[in-house]
Amino acid sequence: MRKLGVVAVGAAALGLTLAAWTRQPSPTQGGATISGKMKFTGTKPAMPKIDMSEEPKCKAKYQGVPTDEAVVVNANGTLGNVFVYAKSGLPASYQAAAPSGDVTLDQDGCRYHPHVLGILVGQKLAIKNSDGILHNIKAKGVKNRPFNISQPTNMTSERTFSVPEVMVPLECNVHGWMHAWLAVLPHPFFAVSGADGSFSIKGLPPGTYTIEAWHEKYGTQTATVTVAGSETKTADFSFAAK
Amino acid sequence: MWATNAKIVGIVLGTLALYTLIANKIPQVQSEVPQALSLGANVTPEQLVAAGEKVFNGIGGCTTCHGLGTRAPNLLTDETGTGPIGVRCAKREPGKSCKQYLYESLDQPTAYVVAGYQPIMPVMTKQLSPAQVWSVIAFLESQGGTVDVTASDIPSTATTSATSTTATGGAGAAGGAAFAGGSTDPKAIIQAAGCLACHKLEGQGQVIAPDLTHVGSRRDAESIRKKILDPASSIAKGYEKLAGIMPKAFGTMMNAAQLEAVVQFLAGHK
Amino acid sequence: MRRYTEHPFWQAVGILLVAYVVVVWVVPLLPGSAIVPKSVVLQYMATVLVGVLIYVSDSEERWQRFKEPITAMLVEPRLRPVRSGVLVVVPVLVGLVAYGQVQTTVAAPPNLRSIHPAPPTEITFRGKAISLTGLENPLRQHPDSLPAYLADGKRVYYQNCLPCHGDHLDGQGHFASGFNPLPANFQDNGTIAQLTESFVFWRIAKGGPGLPREGTPWNSAMPKWEDFLTEREIWSVILFLYDQTGWTPRTWEKTGTGDGGRGTGHD
Amino acid sequence: MIDALLALVLVAPPVPRPSFLVPVQDTTKGKAVYVKWCAGCHGDGGAGDGAAAAHMLPRPRNFTGAIYKIRTTASGQLPTDADLLHAIDEGLPGSAMPGWRGRLSDAERRDAMSYIKTFSSFFADTSQHVVALKFSSPPGGGTGTEALKVGRQFYDSIGCRKCHGDQGRGDGPSAPTLKDDAGFPIFAADLHQSWRFRGGGTVEDIYRRLRTGLDGTPMPSFSDLVDQKFLTDQELWRLAQYVRSLSPAKPPEVRDVIHAPQIAGAVPASPDDSAWARVDRYWFPLVGQVIHKERAFAPAVSGVWVQAVHDSTTLALRVSWDDRTQSPDTAWLGFEQRLLETVAGDDSASLRAERWPDQLAVQFPHRLAGGAGGMERPYFLMGGPSDPVYQWRWTSQPRRAVAGLARGIDRFDTLPGTPAAQAVHDHGEWRVVLTRALAPSDTANEVPFDAGRAIPVAFFAWDGSSGEHGSRMAVSTWYFLALDRPTPPSVFISPVLAMLVTLGLGLVVVRRAQRRGTTR
Amino acid sequence: MADPLLLLQAAADTSRAYGEFPVIGARQFIWITAEVHLMFAAFVLGVPMFAVVTEAIGIFGKDERYDRLSKEFTRLLLVAYSATAIWGAMLVFGLSTLYPRFWAYLTAIFAPSMWVYAALFFIESFTLYLYYYGWDRWKKGRAKLWHWTLGILLNVWGTIVMFIANSWLTYMMSPPRDITPTTDPTTIKLWHAIANATWMPINVHRVIANVVFGGAIVGAYASYRFLAARTEEERAHYDWMGYVGNFIAMSALIVLPFAGYWLGREIYQYDQSMGITMMGGFMSWLWVIQAFLIAVLFLTGNYYLWIGMGRIPGAERFQPYTKYLLIVLVLGAIVWGTPHTMIADSKELAAMGGSHHPFLGALGVMSAKNTAVNLMILTTFLSFLLYRRANVRPVVPWARAGTLIQAGMFAVAAGVVLFYGIRGYFVEAIVRIGYSVYQVLAVLACILFVTVIDVLMARGAQSLGAIRWGKMPPRSQYALFILAVTFTWLMGLMGFARSGIRQYWHVWQVMQDTSAYAATPALGYASKMISLCVLIFLSLVAFVFWLGGLAEKSTFVATERGAQHVGH
Predict the structure, then answer these.
(1) Is the Cβ pair E346, D372 closer than 8 Å?
(2) Options 2.40.110.20, 4.10.410.60, 2.60.40.420, 2.30.30.100; which CATH number does A95-186 get?
(3) Tens digit of pLDDT for each residue in B83-130?
(4) Most confident residue range from B229-243, D295-309, D499-513
(5) How large is the ipTM?
(6) Which residues contact C151 (CB under 8 A, 6 or more apart)?
(7) Which among C104, C108, C167 is the nearest to D452, CB-wise?
(8) Domain D145-245, CATH 1.10.760.10 — does that match?
């Protein structure tokens, strides 16, 4: 009986693999681009300082006192760490390419790098501990199964996510200040605003898209953008200090 | 024959012993008797002290203030290094024995306010029977001192009580049945009855019991009247713990006109 | 073997042994059972012993046969070792028992109480007099609203009673270990199943502090719920207790026999 | 031949399991059971928000997320049916969840389990693989010094102490920041109380929790560490064995009477005196004060260890208990605030965290009852107006003890004489020694400690950093303190006498029987 | 209730309300005099019933032996009677000096009935003297019938005397509801006070109990004489007398619980809280003792019968079955004695989850107890039946069918008892109470019909040989002693229960006991007092017997008669 079960599981796995293999990816080369800037108005909020005296190894990696990364306002008055993605508008026939390569989340200096990131469904998330001290990484997804793994040393663990979800909060309970945000998407049309506050989503098929910008503190904003061919359209967002 | 007799006696005694033994092995519970205390001529100091402790902790309401050490001196334990009340009572007033001092401080509390405290204590001789007053005195004396209250104090002081009431409150009605000389001025009655020892009214008085400043908005006249006559009939929300502290005797100590005056006065405080 | 099974002396010994095994080991094994207290074991064994003595002595012949091995033990030269053994063992046992009696070990005094103390005929609930005699649960007079009352009773139970009386109403809540006596077990047929709702109301309203002294030595931790709950909430939770356990409250006996001014409670 | 068979099997569709092997899972019946017995805490919708939930810490499980602490599956996986049933059957020690085995029938528990699974779509999702991990069995020698040393080494190296603290009492530097997935404050487990571990207190249970983690809590899974060979399986077992060794071998049994032996020489006044190691210690469970307003539904102190000795003139009582903090402790103020916001009390307004001290009260009756076998005692909850109790109250700030008479929970009158007190706070444990002369100086108010009788005693504890003060505390019922006397030789006289008399009687009986036997 | 204000003021009028008795104290004095007086009274009421019945058997059964027996009892009565009067006088003296206020209160209400009481006492003594001293004079024919009528009169007077005395004590326990503490006692109508709620139940209960008691004491007397007998004839006579005494005691005992049930029910109806104090309050442990005593009575009574089978030719047919009866009785005793609230240490309590055993606790409730006691009664009755049947073989043609019917009746009765006993666990309390009535009715019906069949079947039955009266081992006679002591002690215990439920009231909720002895003492103390009273009583009874022995030599029948029909 048990043997039968093993065989059955094996057969099922084989079937699944075959199904995945036969699913044809749509071409993504070319396509349209949406880009824009994350403007920030109002006074830049002072981020709380993080007391890392408990972890001298991390503390040593900073000059001065590190601060919380919840709100990162760039020198040009733009907002960093804003996640932008196509929330809807993809044609129904769209099939994302099989994810290639890993997304790496690094724990370095008792902070996550990057602080906000996106990943494809089924793509591997490599969680790396560069600190060599105990971190636990806890994913608190609601649609995805949550997990909580321990990394007491320099090591890398891999996990995948099976369902689209924006956002999966990631945290370390040993260091209460450590937070990261992971978006799991079925398509690669997402970006994170960088040090200049700009973003760019490339290779979009023609269509009318709802673009959502998400910020951990200032919430979400949406814009509707219609693109055709390989044109580039601009969608700027503006967040106000609260 | 004697062997038979001995056996019979043995059987009888053995059976009795067995039953008695079993009955003694099970829980021994004696029924309770409400303690009727004879304060007759042969009352012992212990009986007085025991009765006094009940009054002190119960109907007398003394612990409301004297138990916490903030509103009134702590009587049962050390008060600023002078020992419990039984030790210090005789030294409080020159020329007054412990017994005299205690009685008078129950009878005319405002005359003996300890430094640092407010004159809020009601006249206890009006709220308690002479027997209760004297048993409280005996109890207080027992806290570190010697009890010298005897049965002879009780009847003789009943008249003392009446006279001293007269002296404080003016021409009291017979039997001390009216405050403030029978005046129908509600403020005078409230003052004389010691209401403000617990209640706050128009910015005066204490906050042990509900504030009466807006009592008219919570209770109508009928409810206030009932509350004075039978304090246990309704307890204000939040004061359940203090239920039973308000003396039941106010109704009998006021005449009808006085009661009505107070009731209407309070009901008007909306 | 047969010689032994048919001999009254060995039968008596066997019965006593079997009874002991049953009471001490078999009874606790039964589903939902527990160990039998020593006092009850003693009582059962004493009863069985009396029964055995009656058995061996109610016929003259059996009595004589019963005495045979004892006499033999006392007399027969070949049983000298047994005799000596008995003469040693019995005094030693007596000595041990005597030592147990005189030895000064301090034990906790037995903690006993009467389960159903006599209720007062009337209580004062938040200043309102409630006569308990003949009192029924007033909420039962509104059958349409019963589900609502029950739901409210359930809420009250879970918010207040649960820590001690437990999820299963069996007195084994997560705080039960801290109390002695243990909280009442409503699933047991000896508690609410035996009581009128008015009695339960009294116990809930007045709690441990409201127990009469004849119930001493009580240390019931039951709070005085009148400080927390309204009258309706208490009646609701009583409804819930009976509904959840499936017991029905004891009802008042009908006393309308017209026997001239008695049996109708207090005036 | 075999190959042919194998091919046949491969080609054949998976054989469905015979229906009688699949347990019938009836959610209608399950719903009835759930609504009757579970919904009061877990809520009608399974969201862990039943009527009782607000009074509990830890809160009842929220079934809608399908996140379960106690599993045999990898972190992030759903529990197996057996895992769920196990939690229902055995309950979760140290929480309000009772074991339902013996309370509900097998079918009822199974039905309820099936119904609970309907609250989350994860269970219906066939892509979820629920596979119980394969656990090895513990290596031997787990209680040896060497094994424990290895375990301790990994306890330090993999960072357990970050939350659980150096000695495992849940006082690590990260402990005050911990929250569970719902944002409720959560205590790092006190590893000295294995009988309160939610998933069970055996070495196997601990090992499993290390492998699976406790989902929904900060406790992570260490499986990756083993999989990636950073740690061998055996080393993880050693860690589990070390953690187990922190608690007593058996859950402490509650005994009624504290026996205080009489010792030669002066009583040890210091908590860390080596003499205490030779004295039997007694465990008394403490529970929340839920009798008077304000009630404490989630007390921080779950019990006290008590030892007592006397030297015929002085009594020394050593009380030790686990308390993460040496209150007041500013590091825990945030945690205290979250606790006060989480566990509902009787206050309508939410409480503000304040810097309360830790406290301990040891209570005796005001007077020792004479009659009725000494059964009569004052009300265990600090006596009453006419029946006071004599108490010692020790506070951590200022660090001293006072004696006084309590007449109910609201009233405490201090007495002049104070018991001597010495206290130590050491890695999450308070150890307090209270000493007083057996014969009181104030006979009217202080109870005499007479040797050879059962003196009722009760304990109360407050953890200031959990916001406990006033009537918010942990309480115990009455227990007894007995000052033992060395057995005097006279005690042996009457047993010996009884033996001799019995022997004499026996001889007489034998003699008579033999005489009768010979004459016959 | 215990408002100190009221108490302090109410205490004023208690001066000179109580006297004090030297050394032992007022309550103890009253306790002893009242209880010993009551025991003697019960004896002098129970024995005449006995004497009249045996005399009647002697007259109508033409059996000289019974007549002798009757006279022998009556002789005992003479001295016992004066003892009763002496103790009664002591009681009155004690009450009027030690509890004067209370006594004045009672006399204010009951004075007329007290005069009647005294008068009847006198008339009764007179009747007794006539009855005893006229025995040999009115021995034949119509005169004998007149003599027998005297005996009946004696019982009538005695019963009225007892009813009057009962009215006083039941008034104390259950005064009519319209009487309050402020009611002036002189305004209370006498009949109103007499016909109170518990008067009739107590009357009935006491009449039956007196029969039991008389029988038991007679049994003890006979067993003493048996043990002291020097000749075979004497031994045979007293063996027979002991049997008769025991038979009467046991027969009456079977119905006593039903009378007790009625009384208890009346008490509950009169005042719920009094009833609960009695059954569940501080008195609850008393019933554990009572259960033990009743178990002793059943076991000892049956034991006596079974040993007695040894002297009956033909009884060996039944002897193998006695062990099954014994098993039922022992199991019944175990159930009957299982406490609902168990004495246990904390570890046991924790294991049981409270003071109720989760499994055995089911035996501690009323359903189980009623079932047990009903089965024990049935078993005892069966023992009697076997005993009766032992030395005869029925010759009526339907003997076999009759026996089968009897067996069927036993089976049905036992089935009914068991059915309602088990069903009682599944119904609510009010219904359950009703079930005990069905159980009792089934048992009584069984007893009645089986007896009728048996009497019919015994007609012309063939004897299997004479009963060898006197061929009893001494241990059977000690059993009779245990029975007598147990009955007496049980009487004392029940008296304590009846009196103790008033707690601190002289007259329940009308007149408070404000003496130093107001608290009802604990059971241990009460048991010592009861034992003391029983000891005093038994010593005096022994003295009375000894006096009786001095007056006249034994009246046993010297001639050995043919086969006796045992029973009546």
Answers:
(1) no
(2) 2.60.40.420
(3) 778 778 877 777 788 888 888 888 887 777 777 777 777 777 766 777
(4) D295-309
(5) 0.67
(6) none
(7) C104
(8) yes
